[in-house]
Design a protein that fits this description.
Blueprint: H1 2-21, H2 27-39, E1 46-54, E2 60-67, E3 78-82, H3 91-106, H4 111-119, E4 121-125, H5 130-135, H6 173-184, E5 187-194, E6 197-202, H7 224-236, E7 256-258, H8 259-262, H9 269-277, E8 280-287, H10 297-313, E9 318-325, E10 336-339, E11 346-347, E12 353-357, E13 361-368, E14 375-381, E15 391-397, E16 418-421, H11 449-452, H12 460-478
Parallel strand pairs: 3-4, 3-5, 5-8, 6-7, 9-15
Antiparallel strand pairs: 1-2, 2-4, 6-8, 9-12, 10-11, 10-13, 13-14, 14-16
Helix pairs in contact: 3-10, 7-10
This protein binds 2-acetamido-2-deoxy-beta-D-glucopyranose (NAG) (4 copies).
Length: 479
């Protein structure tokens, strides 16, 4: 009898704790949550809490960084997840908090979580727009008026420099903070979580000029293959998004859409990430209602958990490397890089490192840096079913004031990598590799994106478990 009472009380307690978790954290509570999380230690995991700046009203924009990588190791990709860019779309802020806990708690026991944290650094900004959030209300499903950063504020997702147009809207403090953040950390993969639809939106959002008769012609990037793949990884690992018709008024084939096809915008954050910083960012629309009742959060979390995990893992598919001076071995920052066939340049970081997400295949990387001979490096991105790994290169640049006709012979370094020094004929222009034998003649042929997507995990089983839990609770209470 005593035992039975104990079980009932225990179940009740678990139920209450369970409930308390599922609410929207106001700005004060969210800061507290992050500070507590930062203090909660777990063997192998390192947390760091930092503010990237302040909102219009002076609220800190807190970022929690989570990793299990070694501090000084090179080649670690940085990922970021952003919530509440629109004040009235706060589902993402709560999903991010639960995702942080899920990663911390799963480290060491869940092999996918462990691999992810052992090989990446994840930065969470759950509250990019605290001022707008403070003005919004639960159960407000539609409307635009408090998406901005406070009264008289701006839509932050129209506030960034644009790839094709001049953005005349003055930059808000939140925008400036995110821009600075992107300068400080060489992010490679990112997602901004929104609400009001169920779809993954990929760049470009901006359109060069409309020469088409179509209402909203696509505006695609040179990395379209990668963006479609990333978008599909998310939608296919979500139990309903990939069906494309989750909300009443919209249809999206496969649950993904090019931003410009949906509706073109100027000054969007994802385009800025990609075109100005080489960071691939997607806009994740994860709930039909922008600000649903807190009671809907458990299901929203279950629906997005696996999709987020698989999405983050994509930061480990592609190439990384470090660019060094061949004599001094000093890192070369701000070298200009380009994957042959993809007309979009990116740069090496302060530490001479670079990252680029790519589908499996054979590639060539064109590297140029002031004062050095241009180089073309060929490499392979392998296909991994589980535990993906970035191809790692070390690229030694030869000072262009040193003559190549001397005895300097190119040296072979990283396995599977061919590095050749060549004299550039025209300054800055990409050059071809002199020895044809070392370059695979075929251009890369990425496998069909569908074959790369890991099938949806049985997230329905968790729903099922919850169901069993509630049924057992009722049975216990009846006893
Ligand atoms: C935030 O929520 C907590 C309860 O969780 C409450 O005590 C506090 O007053 C709220 N703060 C503001 C500024 O609304
Ligand atoms: C985060 O935790 C570390 C370790 O406990 C501590 O040194 C640091 O001050 C904390 N950061 C913030 C912003 O609270
Ligand atoms: C490559 O991109 C630049 C800058 O966007 C553009 O001016 C140029 O026309 C592009 N070249 C090709 C071949 O698409
Ligand atoms: C290249 O070598 C020359 C002569 O040693 C030196 O003055 C110059 O700074 C070097 N360039 C770079 C980019 O290191």
């Amino acid at each position: 009898m005593l035992y039975r009472h104990f079980v009932i009380i225990l179940v009740f307690a678990v139920f209450l704790v369970h409930c308390a978790e599922w609410r929207y954290h106001n700005n004060t509570d969210l800061e507290l949550f992050l500070k507590n999380f930062n203090q909660s230690t777990k063997s192998g995991i390192a947390t760091k809490l930092y503010s990237i700046g302040k909102s219009r009203k002076g609220n800190d924009l807190w970022v929690l960084q989570l990793t299990a990588t070694k501090k000084r190791k090179t080649g670690i990709p940085n990922i970021k997840l952003i919530g509440t860019i629109h004040g009235n779309e706060p589902v993402g802020r709560e999903i991010i908090l639960h995702f942080m806990e899920f990663l911390r708690d799963g480290y060491g026991s869940d092999p996918v979580v462990t691999w992810l944290l052992d090989n990446t650094r994840i930065h969470f900004l759950p509250n990019m727009n605290p001022d707008g959030f403070a003005l919004s209300h639960e159960n407000m499903c539609d409307g635009e008026h408090v998406r901005n950063n406070g009264l008289g504020g701006k839509d932050l997702n129209r506030n960034f420099p644009d790839f094709y147009h001049k953005n005349r809207i003055p930059e808000e403090p939140e925008t400036k903070a995110v821009k600075k953040w992107l300068e400080d950390v060489p992010f490679i993969l990112s997602a901004a979580l929104h609400g009001g639809a169920m779809v993954v939106n990929y760049p470009f959002d901006t359109v060069k000029e409309s020469t088409s008769d179509m209402e909203n012609p696509p505006s695609l990037t040179p990395d379209h293959d990668v963006f479609v793949h990333l978008a599909q990884v998310y939608s296919q690992n979500h139990p309903t998004m990939h069906k494309g018709d989750s909300c009443s008024d919209s249809k999206f084939e496969g649950g993904i859409v090019n931003g410009a096809v949906w509706y073109p915008i100027i000054g969007g954050m994802q385009d800025y990430n990609y075109a100005f910083h080489g960071c691939m960012e997607l806009t994740l629309e994860i709930s039909c209602c922008k600000y649903p009742a807190a009671s809907e959060l458990p299901k929203l979390w279950q629906d997005n958990k696996m999709a987020l995990l698989k999405y983050c893992l994509e930061a480990l598919r592609g190439v990384t490397g470090q660019i060094l001076d061949s004599t001094s071995r000093k890192p070369i920052a701000k070298a200009t890089l380009r994957v042959s066939g993809k007309n979009m340049t990116f740069s090496s970081s302060k530490t001479g490192e670079f990252w680029r997400l790519l589908l499996p295949g054979n590639y060539k990387l064109e590297v140029s840096a002031e004062g050095y001979y241009n180089q073309v490096v060929s490499f392979v991105v392998k296909k991994y079913e589980t535990n993906p790994k970035l191809t790692s290169l070390k690229i030694l640049m030869l000072n262009s004031s040193i003559s190549t006709t001397s005895s300097t012979t190119p040296k072979q370094r990283t396995t599977g990598t061919t590095v050749k020094f060549t004299r550039s004929i025209t300054d800055g222009a990409p050059i071809t590799v002199s020895s044809a034998g070392v370059i695979p003649s075929e251009d890369h042929q990425p496998p069909t994106p569908a074959s790369l997507i890991t099938p949806l995990e049985k997230s329905s089983s968790t729903v099922h478990q919850n169901y069993i839990f509630y049924v057992s609770l009722v049975i216990f209470l009846l006893l």
